[in-house]
Amino acid sequence: MNMMVTVHGTSIKKWLVFILFTFMGTLTVVATMTATSTYRLSSSSVHEVANQFSTESLVHLLSFENVYFRQTLPKDKQQFPYSQYFFQMTTSVNLNDPRSLLGRELPGFSLYDSEIILAGEGTDFTNIPYESPPPLEVLLAEREAAQEQLHEEEAPPAPAPSQTTGGKKVVYIYHTHTQESYLPALKGVTNPNFAHHPTVNVTKVGKKLGEELEKRGIGTVVDTTDFIGKLLKNNMEYYQAYDMSRKTVVEAMANNRDVQYLIDIHRDSRRRNDTTVTINGVDYARVSFIIGGENAKYEKNLQLVTKLHEMLEKKYPGLSRGTFEKKGVGTNGKFNQDLSENAILIEFGGVDNTFQELYRTAAAVADVFSEYYWQAEKVNATQPAEKK
């Protein structure tokens, strides 16, 4: 009787292996045969299926033929939950993560697939940053801007910086979602989904950040190319904005070998209570750092923004909402950050922040960034030159 159970068990395991590899082979063949078809498997679809097969599960499958494979796994991983695994593989529902079920059933819930790497004050999964793509008619609509909102607060003349980059433009600022704007600057607009404008938008924040960096001796280029306007002109989709901005960034880097840092400025879609902080009795727009989880320079990018977040927390407590990783279906996953180890995506404020609050934040970010920059330059200057 025991021999019969063992034989049947072995047969079942072999059939599972056969079915698994047959399925993967069929998927590959179908993807290849439909490569030129109008209706075909997308790379994201194949990627999502492939992600179901972990290294651990593959080792267990191989151990059906040779038990010694299983010994390479940690002791707590040598027993494999086959029923739970195949349930997850066939339904895409992870019993240990309710988001895998709810994300498919509730509109907008998939945004919680973002990971919180570093959480700022008050940040959790209920208020993580997100950007809401606007309807086409919103981008095409003409809106009157409240120009008085753009006025800057008077400040005493800045002293000459003690050190400069000697005329070199080492920072490149651009704005992939160029027309993201803020409700207080848009007359008669109260719907957060309509917070977009062709000229009064995040480029104003980029210009302010560039000015503040220049005051601190850091040569900066601020590119105000309207990538969203280009998308509309070429009948392209909103999600293709990164393809559009990437071409400009690559060209800029090729034309200026001095560029060391890339900063892409965006705006969060969260409301005021999540995107505003009071420091020493003055309101600031909070910032969030976004990391593309599918970019080849992820680790270096993460080291940079981690340091900036920590420095902001020390000097301007509560200004940073934290660092967030975004990847997978429905998001770009790279955000041009694979172009440089020093690529940064910063979301300045939310739809309800005023430009006065944003300008204060731009000055604060420039203050911390310049401190980081000059420290890094000092370290680089003391390192021996690489042998050619």
TrEMBL record:
User: Could you tell me which SUPFAM superfamilies the record lists for this protein?
Assistant: Zn-dependent exopeptidases
* Protein name according to UniProt: Stage II sporulation protein P
Which residues lie in Basic and acidic residues bias regions?
A: 145-154
Q: Where is this region: Disordered?
A: 145-165
- InterPro entries for the chain: Spore_II_P
Organism annotation: Anoxybacillus kestanbolensis
State the Pfam families in the record. Answer: SpoIIP
